[in-house]
Amino acid sequence: MRTVAATRYVTPLREGGSLPAIVEADDDGLYVLKFRGAGQGPKALIAELVAGELARALGLPVPEIVFVELDGDLARTEPDPEIQHLIRASAGLNLALDYLPGSVTFDPVVEQPEAELASAIVWFDAFVSNVDRTARNTNLLVWHRQLWLIDHGAALYFHHDWDRFLERAVQPFARIKDHVLLPFASALREADGRLGALVTRALIERVVALVPDTWLCGDTPFADAAAHRDAYVQYLWRRIEAPHAFVEEAIRARV
Q: pTM of the prediction?
């Protein structure tokens, strides 16, 4: 993954728990920045990074994810005290997605994705327990006539409570019933056979290894960042082991 430095705060996007903003970076690109100092803190960035890069590895369309170095001095040019505080609280390493100019929010009435893609996205969101892909908040964009997945900060919600996390790894994901693409996902078993084979332990370890140590500190039950990181690997690997209760739940919900 690339690392860029934020050079200009462009405009806030006052939506979502992570309070993102459009920023310009030293590569002249525009990015949607997710602040480490906002809302759920580093956990939202960990979920964004791990889920987003797993989705990309499975061939799902996700904008490029980059690390962003944020200088707290950028707050001096912002008149809004809330934004000033957010920038200063997030000084250091943050996360951002490539900005897709001209993209529009997915509308299930207007857009009807093919069953293969819809099933793959539903399968993936059930796997990573993404609670935030509903009709009220699709977190899907249409850009150049292609569907793009954004905003995975609400995925992996198990990491807000590490108690018995490995037992919970094999549980179904009941909230898949609210998924905006579930009506189009008529090929869930095919998606399970295809995508399940791609999620190897090596892939999980490679993606989780991207998480910076500084995001894995704080009030946790783990001795160090390495143990914390390994817990994510254990959870995801346990979840992908057969049988896949999360797939059966999605199929039941669709019926």
A: 0.95
**pLDDT tens digits along 144-180:** 999 999 999 999 999 999 999 999 999 999 999 999 9
**92-98 and 140-143: which strand pairing?**
unpaired
Contact 38, 59 (CB under 8 A): no
Task: Tell whether omega for the bond before 20 is within 30 degrees of 0, i.e. cis.
Answer: no
Q: Does the CA dihedral 73-77-99-111 come out positive or negative?
A: positive
What are the b/e assignments for 53-87, b being 16+ CB within 10 Å? Answer: bbbbbbebbbbebbbbebeeebbeebeeeebbebb
164: left (phi over 0), alpha (psi -120 to 50) or beta: left
Amino acid type, 161: D
Nearest to 66 by CA among 115, 24, 9: 24
